[in-house]
Amino acid sequence: MSVLQTTQTPLPDAAPLRRPAAVRLTWLLVGIAVLAALCVASIAFGARDVSFDDVLAGLAGRTGDVSQAAVVARLPRTVLALLVGAALAMAGTAMQAVTRNPLADPGILGISGGAALAVVIGIAFFGMSGPYAFIVAAVAGAAVAAVFVYAVGSLGRGGATPLKLALAGAAATAAFMSLVSAILLPRADIAEMFRFWQIGGVGGATWDRIVVVAPVLAVGAIVCLAWARGMNSLALGDDVAAGLGEHVFRTRLVAFAGAVVLAGAATAIAGPIAFVGLIVPHMCRLLVGTDHRWLLPFSAIAGAALLVAADIVGRVIARPEEIEVGIITALIGAPFFIWIVRRQKVREL
Fold first, then answer.
1. Which CATH number among 1.20.1260.10, 3.60.40.10, 1.10.3470.10, 1.10.3720.10 corresponds to the domain 21-344?
2. Would you list the domain boundaries of the chain?
3. How confident is the model at residue 234 (pLDDT cuts 50, 70, 90)?
4. Where is this protein localized, as stated in its record (predicted)?
5. Which of residues 211 and 155 earns the better pLDDT score?
6. Side-chain-side CA neighbours of residue 290 (13 Å)
């Protein structure tokens, strides 16, 4: 059995494949407007609130006072939240499509944990320091973790059911993060550097890091978007997709590779942030249907909005300190995960 062969459990939400173009376009424009408003709020709110005039002055590059300087400092943080949120949401959407598993998500399936472990091993034992090395290690770790979790989840009767994959992913994530802690604890210098990175956050964003990771995320996004039509065919079942002329294995392999690149690179730059790839695709299907040519870009917008909103909440509710976005998304995502399991009644063990 191929590591990318999937359970036949259908995705939730019986939304039709096609929605009226006017409806989809309306929701897309609404999503863009909400995202733009959240970006302005992300720049304006934090440990120190700034006025709208200061926001405009900061966007123009002026740093004449503390408020304007704060705006300039928050810009890379906001952009990184946009990129990481969009990447994780698209990765989750693609994983749910190619595995036909409603519980698929980079965090739940252990992919983010595998990427984190690979980065820490590279730093601790191989002296890895360059940002490109971080991304390569994270993507490789994500790929190995994906294969490992699927292999474990496929054991026993029934193959890789959604719940077995989720349990295998949760166990693998716990093991990966335990290994990360075991490696970091005796190394105070590395442990301090990655103390917040382990939780998952965008607080250390810089333009240099964004310039490095943006092209990699763009490649992963382009791969997923290019295979959106193939994902629609997979939703009809392997036999029907093959009958329509779709190369099922190739479609799964390439689309899953794009998702792994997105998840690995996002983890390398922002740490393991869970549940974005689970929450967003399900919510977006309710609005724009299951056509992945619309669902993928809409998921990217919604994922970016979710992570920017989580970052704003983390900064506002704990002033003058802040709560990392990984904690906020976990608080939102854990109840949603339980709801999905109960709604789908995925009880096979």
1. 1.10.3470.10
2. 21-344
3. confident
4. Cell membrane
5. 211
6. 20
What torsion do the CA atoms of 171, 254, 8, 145 make, to the nearest 10 degrees?
-10
- CA neighbours closer than 13 Å in the CB half-sphere of residue 325: 33
Instruction: Report the phi/psi class of residue 61: left, alpha or beta, with left for phi > 0 and alpha for psi in -120 to 50.
Output: left
* DSSP-based three-state secondary structure for 337: helix
**Sequence-ordered list of residues with C-beta below 8 angstroms from that of 282, at least 6 positions apart, any chain:** 12, 13, 102, 336, 340
81 neighbors 252 (Cβ within 8 angstroms): no
Tokens of 198: 């382990």
Non-local (6+) Cβ contacts of 248 within 8 A are: 234, 238, 241, 242
Q: What is the pTM of this model?
A: 0.86
Please give the Cα distance from 179 to 189 (Å, whole number).
17
H-run or E-run covering 127: none
Dihedral sign of CA atoms 141, 76, 322, 204 in order: positive
Rounded CA-CA distance 267/202 in Å is: 11
